[in-house]
Amino acid sequence: MLIEQMQTWRHVFKLDPNRPIEEEMIVRLLQSGTDGIIVGGTDGITYQNTYELMRRVKQTSLPCVQEISNAKAVVPGFDGFCIPVVLNTNDTEWLIGAHQKTMKEFGEWIPWNQVAVEGYVVLNPEAKVAQLTGAQTSLTHDDILAYAQIAEHLFRLPFFYLEYSGVYGDALVVQATANHLRHTKLIYGGGIRFEKQAREMAQFADIVVVGNLIYDDIEMALQTVSWVKETKLIR
Ligand SMILES: CC(C)=CCC/C(C)=C/CC/C(C)=C/CC/C(C)=C/CC/C(C)=C/CC/C(C)=C/CC/C(C)=C/COP(=O)(O)OP(=O)(O)O
Ligand SMILES: O=P(O)(O)OC[C@@H](O)CO
Ligand SMILES: [Mg+2]
Known about the structure:
This protein is an alpha/beta fold. 39% of the residues lie in helices and 18% in strands. The protein is built from ten helices and eight strands. 43% of the residues are buried. Residues 16, 18, 41-43 line the site of magnesium ion.
């Protein structure tokens, strides 16, 4: 799958290989009308649990991409690969270090036309991803907008990801960020549980990610697809 195809997504479910999920739930997610499935998580990600989840989600033609957080868990066979780079960390491991090591190992095998880089700004200090990467989460709106401009103009990244994993984010931040991006697509993820939240973030973010709600309330999670897709982007 090409990056250009991912850039047209509006709604995506993120499944965590480290969490159990019933077959019936997977089937319902695949039939939900979502644009794709991202497989990834921060902790407990292994080749085995990622392979197993990939096998289960690749039953239909729905695009399924792996978001790589651990080089040992890269599984060939996904339709695409998302590579996070954490912009708001002082720990170079999560900005470039892990990437350089993985490149040394896999460099010549990488299917480049299936790879998309996501510039992450991690904003929930309690999230596992914030703790792992040492993300500097006390940021002003201007700090965040500067990262967005780096993603678009300096690094020319296809995606900029406002990551509030586990909590609902600040819609004003998402709106202001959206207004600063033209080519780079804005991904929003974090704490979507209710209709009002899904519709609010879908006004500003090109792509809305729903994660935890899948495991907490599958009925509500399934409804987020139409809530997001019915909402017009405001720019
Ligand atoms: C042969 C073949 C097919 C090869 C393809 C391989 C390929 C495409 C290689 C690319 C090379 C490359 C540069 C890879 C990157 C390697 C790497 C390990 C980079 C580090 C990425 C990174 C910054 C990870 C930190 C964690 C992170 C940002 C995770 C993202 C996922 C996330 C935040 C999930 C949220 O879920 P979770 O935190 O688990 O939430 P819960 O608490 O609710 O569980
Ligand atoms: O799990 P939630 O809080 O929905 O967040 C979605 C996604 O941004 C996590 O990487
Ligand atoms: Mg997890």
